[in-house]
Amino acid sequence: MDLKLDQVSHHYGATNVLDDISLTVKKDEIVCLIGPSGCGKSTLLRFIGGLERPSSGQILQIGEPPAASLNPLTYIFQDFALLPWRTVEGNVSLALEDHKLPKAEQRAIVEDVLRRTNLSDFAKALPRQLSGGMKQRVAIARALSVRPAVMLMDEPLSALDSQTRELLMDDLVDLWTRESFTAVYVTHNLAEAVRLGHRIVVLSRRPGRIREIVEIDMPLAERKDRVHELEVKQHHLWDLMREEARAADRELADV
Amino acid sequence: MSETTMTNADIREAEQNAAPIARPVPFRGGGFVYKPVRIAGPLVFIVLIAIWEFGSDTGWISPLVLPAPSEAWTAFMNLVHSGLLWKHLGASLQRLVIGWTAGTALGIVAGLAIGLFSVARSGLQPLVSALFPVPKIALLPLFIIWFGIDEGSKVATILFGTFFPTVISTYSGVDNVDRTLIRMGQSFGLSWTSIVRKIVIPGAMPAILSGFRISISIAIVLLVAAEMIGAEYGVGAYILMAGSLMATDQLIAGVAILSVLGLIIAWLIGLAEKYFLRWRT
Ligand SMILES: Nc1ncnc2c1ncn2[C@@H]1O[C@H](COP(=O)(O)OP(=O)(O)OP(=O)(O)O)[C@@H](O)[C@H]1O
Ligand SMILES: [Mg+2]
């Protein structure tokens, strides 16, 4: 299943947030969205996930999601969004309980995703017992359990320290290499964008427009060892961002 | 190279010669953290009662003003032996349990409705604000007309008294449920009932339980007041009777029964909190 954003524009009251965004997300591709703070990245992601409607334009699913997919468009949140009163297991099964699966199958899925995210030993732990990185792993496991067609990730690593971020980035790359998934990945971090993105969409400051789309065709698995080659791309992205970020910064100060 | 090491060594030596006294940095942290001191609570009771008993024995506290704790204890034992304790206590507990359970159950339902539906909120919130401050005991005569002089009016007083604080604590609990958790539920396509049952209600639980602490105290106050106005049995009736006979030892015994009741209930709610909120840090 592909996604097509068709001339999406949006305003909250008098503020224009997004302006004429058209973009296609192809199957098995990770599209990174970067842009200055407040340019409407999270808003765009909410539109893609069907949690909100744009003022104009539309978001189209092209083709059917795989039959096995329980929740084609699945979110991963910056602040993990785990239920503190449920164990790791319980948090994962939450996503499955409304799908009327046989109990045994549900249990098998939970076990499987916990194993794939190296969480099997923590099945009975409560979120408060886990570190930030672990919590985000649980959120990733929960997202995988519903076999998403597209994963919508809003700064999934921003709440983590840089070492943990590095580890989780490796995990995501491994996961993608083993079983490729489709994702829209919002981030502030250019290093993350060049490590994970097949295409990187640079948005301008508010109202967010597409400034440029940068393609990186180096296989994800090789990027870790060829960081220096990516540096050129990263610099280019930074040049694009700097101007926008500066202007956005000043705009906020003016208010 | 060697010169610099020399100078460095020199400096170090000079520092050592000056040898300022080494002492640990002064500790300024600590405090402002609640650590339970288990014996403190009982100790306060014991000391107060001991002083009181001592004062009565030495005649420093006149028996006319306040009977000695030992006399109140004797009055209490008389109550036990006559078998009347269970009659009074049983009647009171029955009213308390029925009134409080019904009041909080209805209060939770109404609170959830206000928390979840805009129409209910707009419609009921002003009503709750208008009726909450009305002393329910002032309505007892009306309740007696409506629900009868017997159990009905007393249970109704307690029910109304506990209903409103429960409504308020429930809907503020719902208001405080983390919106991103609800968003998360929606993003996984959970049904509305699942979101309410698995996200909203557990999230509102801390507020609901702390509402229980308030509503149970209100229930006990109203219970005694209602029993004083018209009841044959009940701790309130016993206290009223003792008061009208100037039997202050019995009066103190009756008040002590209420205090112990309050303590036991607070302890039970503490247990419930430990159980339902064990996920909290
Ligand atoms: N529900 C809302 N009502 C009104 N304004 C909103 C709402 N949500 C977002 N906005 C505004 O829309 C703009 C874009 O917000 P959004 O959260 O999408 O930005 P973002 O690019 O994700 O920013 P950040 O990088 O800080 O996460 C902001 O100016 C924000 O204040
Ligand atoms: Mg955002």
Question: Can you characterise this structure?
Answer:
The complex is a heterodimer of chains A (about 260) and B (about 280). Chain A has about 260 residues and is of the alpha/beta class. Chain A is built from eight helices and nine strands. Chain A has two domains: about 150 residues, 3-Layer(aba) Sandwich (Rossmann fold), CATH 3.40.50.300; about 70 residues, no CATH class. The site of magnesium ion (MG) has 3 residues of chain A, from helix 1.
Would you kindly provide a brief summary of this structure?
With 255 residues, chain A is α/β, with parallel strands linked by helices.
Q: Stretches of chain A where pLDDT falls below 50 for ≥5 residues?
A: none
Mean pLDDT of chain B comes to 90
Could you say how many structural domains of chain B there are in total? 1
**How many structural units, i.e. domains of chain A?**
2
Structural class of chain B: mainly alpha
Largest sheet of chain B: none
CATH homologous group name of chain B: MetI-like
Give the % helix of chain A. 40-55%
Radius of gyration of chain B: 29 Å
CATH architecture identity of the largest domain in chain A: 3-Layer(aba) Sandwich
- Give the overall average pLDDT of chain A: 90
Give helix and strand order of chain B, one letter per element, not per position.
Answer: HHHHHHHHHHH
Q: Please report the two chains with the greatest interface, counting residues with C-beta closer than 8 angstroms to the partner's C-beta.
A: A-B, 22 and 20 residues
Strand and helix layout:
The complex is a heterodimer of chains A (255) and B (281).
Chain A: E1 2-12, E2 15-25, E3 30-34, H1 41-48, E4 56-62, E5 73-76, H2 88-97, H3 103-116, H4 132-145, E6 150-154, H5 162-178, E7 182-186, H6 190-196, E8 199-203, E9 210-215, H7 220-223, H8 227-254
Chain B: H1 2-18, H2 40-57, H3 69-82, H4 84-116, H5 118-131, H6 140-147, H7 151-175, H8 179-187, H9 192-229, H10 235-244, H11 248-276
Helix pairs in contact in B: 3-11, 4-5, 4-7, 4-9, 4-10, 6-7, 7-9, 8-9, 9-10, 9-11, 10-11
The complex binds adenosine-5'-triphosphate and magnesium ion (MG).
Keywords (chain A): ATP-binding, Nucleotide-binding, Transport
Pfam families (chain A): ABC_tran (PF00005)
InterPro entries (chain A): AAA+_ATPase, ABC_transporter-like_ATP-bd, ABC_transporter-like_CS, ABC_transporter_ATP-bind, P-loop_NTPase
